[in-house]
Amino acid sequence: MEAELYNDTPQGLAIDWRSEDFLRNTAKWGKFLAIMGFIMIALMVVLALFMGSIMGSAMSGMGGNGAAGFMGSGFFTVFYLIFALLYFFPVLYLYKFSTKMQDGLRTRDQESIAESFKNLKSLFKFMGILTLVILGFYALGMLAMLIGFGAGAMFS
Question: What is the residue extent of each domain of the chain?
Fold first, then answer.
């Protein structure tokens, strides 16, 4: 019985002209934001490559030894590259959603529209998991802070 509910035959859900207009505008703005996101990712990568040397020279200029300056510069380079990589996936999903939706609405292709919504689902899933991971890091940080306060109170 459940197999009859979820097959590939049309279920009777149609997109009216208002919903199509909303989807068309959403796809247009999504594509704009995705292109701007790709530009920002490229700037982050370039900044990551130069930030390492900038921070290394700044740390050595402040009297830090060479090893500390090198480690600090490497940290900033890796940090920016990881941030750019994390930012890449939601931007890619947004771009795929937008282009597939524009193509699907223009050609009236149900498969393109379904693929578009698949990418939108992936975007939200990625952002949800990333949010949970960040909240976990916040919780660990607060726990470490509470343990530090408790240890400080015990030894004072």
Answer: 17-155
pTM for this model (two decimals): 0.78
Instruction: State pLDDT tens for residues 40-54.
Output: 999 999 998 887 677
Residue 75, CA atoms < 13 Å, CB-side half-sphere: 9
* 3-state SS class at 62: coil
Kindly report the length of the chain.
Answer: 156
| Contact residues for 140 (Cβ-Cβ < 8 A; gap 6+) | none
Environment class of 15 (CB within 10 Å of its CB; exposed 0-12, middle 13-18, buried 19+): middle
Cβ atoms within 10 Å of 27's Cβ, excluding its own:
21
